[in-house]
Amino acid sequence: MPFELGLDLGCRDFGTAVLTTKKCLILEKETYRYRQVLSDIAGNDIQAHSGDPQTLVRHVRNWLYGNATEPMQSGTMMWRRFNEFYGNFSIATQTLGYNEDDLAEMPVAEFIEFIQAWKQDNPIR
Protein backbone atom coordinates (compact mmCIF):
# COMPACT_ATOMS: atom_id res chain seq x y z
CA MET A 1 0.00 0.00 0.00
CA PRO A 2 2.57 2.61 -1.07
CA PHE A 3 -0.06 5.33 -1.56
CA GLU A 4 -1.49 4.98 1.95
CA LEU A 5 1.99 4.82 3.45
CA GLY A 6 2.93 7.99 1.59
CA LEU A 7 -0.13 9.76 2.95
CA ASP A 8 0.70 8.62 6.48
CA LEU A 9 4.33 9.72 6.25
CA GLY A 10 3.24 13.00 4.65
CA CYS A 11 0.89 13.67 7.56
CA ARG A 12 3.85 13.28 9.90
CA ASP A 13 5.96 15.75 7.91
CA PHE A 14 3.34 18.25 6.80
CA GLY A 15 0.35 17.79 9.10
CA THR A 16 -0.62 19.54 12.29
CA ALA A 17 1.68 19.53 15.31
CA VAL A 18 -0.01 16.50 16.88
CA LEU A 19 0.86 14.42 13.77
CA THR A 20 4.61 15.14 13.96
CA THR A 21 4.97 12.41 16.61
CA LYS A 22 3.38 9.69 14.44
CA LYS A 23 5.33 6.45 14.41
CA CYS A 24 5.17 3.83 11.66
CA LEU A 25 6.41 0.29 11.34
CA ILE A 26 6.85 -0.67 7.71
CA LEU A 27 6.76 -4.41 7.06
CA GLU A 28 8.31 -5.79 3.91
CA LYS A 29 8.58 -9.35 2.68
CA GLU A 30 12.15 -9.03 1.41
CA THR A 31 15.02 -7.03 2.86
CA TYR A 32 15.66 -3.83 0.87
CA ARG A 33 12.93 -4.58 -1.70
CA TYR A 34 11.73 -1.01 -1.28
CA ARG A 35 14.94 0.15 -3.00
CA GLN A 36 13.67 -1.30 -6.29
CA VAL A 37 10.97 1.36 -6.60
CA LEU A 38 10.98 5.12 -6.62
CA SER A 39 10.79 5.69 -2.90
CA ASP A 40 12.20 7.77 -0.12
CA ILE A 41 11.35 5.60 2.86
CA ALA A 42 14.94 4.86 3.82
CA GLY A 43 15.48 6.00 7.38
CA ASN A 44 12.12 4.66 8.50
CA ASP A 45 11.65 1.55 10.61
CA ILE A 46 11.47 -1.16 7.92
CA GLN A 47 11.39 -4.82 8.94
CA ALA A 48 11.60 -7.78 6.55
CA HIS A 49 9.67 -10.92 7.49
CA SER A 50 10.53 -13.23 4.54
CA GLY A 51 6.86 -14.23 4.26
CA ASP A 52 6.98 -15.95 7.65
CA PRO A 53 3.96 -15.02 9.82
CA GLN A 54 5.74 -15.86 13.08
CA THR A 55 8.58 -13.50 12.17
CA LEU A 56 6.04 -10.83 11.27
CA VAL A 57 4.36 -11.20 14.69
CA ARG A 58 7.75 -10.91 16.39
CA HIS A 59 8.59 -7.71 14.46
CA VAL A 60 5.25 -6.13 15.33
CA ARG A 61 5.59 -7.14 18.99
CA ASN A 62 9.12 -5.75 19.22
CA TRP A 63 8.04 -2.47 17.60
CA LEU A 64 5.07 -2.18 19.96
CA TYR A 65 7.36 -2.96 22.90
CA GLY A 66 9.48 0.04 22.01
CA ASN A 67 6.37 2.19 22.33
CA ALA A 68 4.65 0.35 25.20
CA THR A 69 4.10 1.52 28.75
CA GLU A 70 3.33 -1.94 30.14
CA PRO A 71 5.14 -5.31 30.03
CA MET A 72 4.42 -7.51 27.02
CA GLN A 73 4.57 -11.21 26.25
CA SER A 74 7.32 -12.51 24.01
CA GLY A 75 6.73 -12.80 20.28
CA THR A 76 6.83 -16.58 20.62
CA MET A 77 4.08 -16.52 23.27
CA MET A 78 1.96 -14.17 21.16
CA TRP A 79 2.31 -16.50 18.18
CA ARG A 80 1.34 -19.49 20.32
CA ARG A 81 -1.75 -17.74 21.68
CA PHE A 82 -2.70 -16.55 18.20
CA ASN A 83 -2.66 -20.15 16.97
CA GLU A 84 -4.56 -21.37 20.04
CA PHE A 85 -7.23 -18.73 19.41
CA TYR A 86 -7.60 -19.64 15.74
CA GLY A 87 -7.86 -23.34 16.53
CA ASN A 88 -10.62 -22.59 19.05
CA PHE A 89 -12.27 -20.12 16.65
CA SER A 90 -12.39 -22.74 13.91
CA ILE A 91 -14.03 -25.31 16.20
CA ALA A 92 -16.46 -22.78 17.68
CA THR A 93 -17.62 -21.45 14.32
CA GLN A 94 -18.02 -24.96 12.85
CA THR A 95 -20.05 -25.98 15.91
CA LEU A 96 -22.27 -22.91 15.42
CA GLY A 97 -22.80 -23.75 11.74
CA TYR A 98 -20.69 -21.06 10.10
CA ASN A 99 -19.42 -21.84 6.60
CA GLU A 100 -16.62 -20.22 4.58
CA ASP A 101 -18.93 -17.52 3.23
CA ASP A 102 -20.15 -16.67 6.74
CA LEU A 103 -16.55 -16.33 7.94
CA ALA A 104 -15.47 -14.26 4.92
CA GLU A 105 -18.31 -11.82 5.53
CA MET A 106 -18.25 -11.86 9.34
CA PRO A 107 -18.57 -8.34 10.73
CA VAL A 108 -15.48 -7.13 12.59
CA ALA A 109 -17.60 -6.54 15.70
CA GLU A 110 -18.66 -10.20 15.73
CA PHE A 111 -15.05 -11.38 15.28
CA ILE A 112 -14.03 -9.14 18.19
CA GLU A 113 -16.72 -10.80 20.32
CA PHE A 114 -15.12 -14.20 19.60
CA ILE A 115 -11.72 -12.78 20.58
CA GLN A 116 -13.06 -11.29 23.81
CA ALA A 117 -14.81 -14.51 24.81
CA TRP A 118 -11.66 -16.52 24.12
CA LYS A 119 -9.49 -14.09 26.10
CA GLN A 120 -11.86 -14.34 29.05
CA ASP A 121 -11.70 -18.14 28.97
CA ASN A 122 -7.93 -18.18 28.32
CA PRO A 123 -6.25 -15.44 30.37
CA ILE A 124 -2.53 -14.82 30.05
CA ARG A 125 -0.74 -16.99 32.60
Order of helices and strands: HEEHHHH
Low-confidence stretches: none
Overall outline: globular
Question: Separation of termini?
Answer: 37 Å
**Structural Rg:** 18 Å
State which percent range the strand residues make up.
5-15%
Mean of residue pLDDT values: 84
| Fraction in helix | 40-55%
In spatial order, strands of the major sheet run 1-2
Tally of distinct domains = 2
What's the number of extended β-strand segments? 2
Structural class call reads mainly alpha
This entry's quaternary arrangement is: single chain
- Count of helix runs: 5
What's this entry about, in short?
The chain contains 5 helices and 2 strands, in the order αββαααα. The protein is mainly alpha-helical. The mean pLDDT is 84.
Q: What does this entry look like structurally?
A:
Helices cover 53% and strands 6% of the residues. The longest helix has 21 residues, at 75-95. The relative contact order is 0.08. It has two domains: 2-65, no CATH class; 76-121, no CATH class. Helix 2 (53-65) crosses helix 3 (75-95). The protein has a two-stranded parallel sheet with strand order 1-2. With 125 residues, it is mostly helical. The model has no long low-confidence stretch (mean pLDDT 84). The termini are far apart. The chain has helices at 2-14, 53-65, 75-95, 100-104, 108-121; strands at 25-28, 45-48. The protein is built from five helices and two strands, in the order αββαααα.
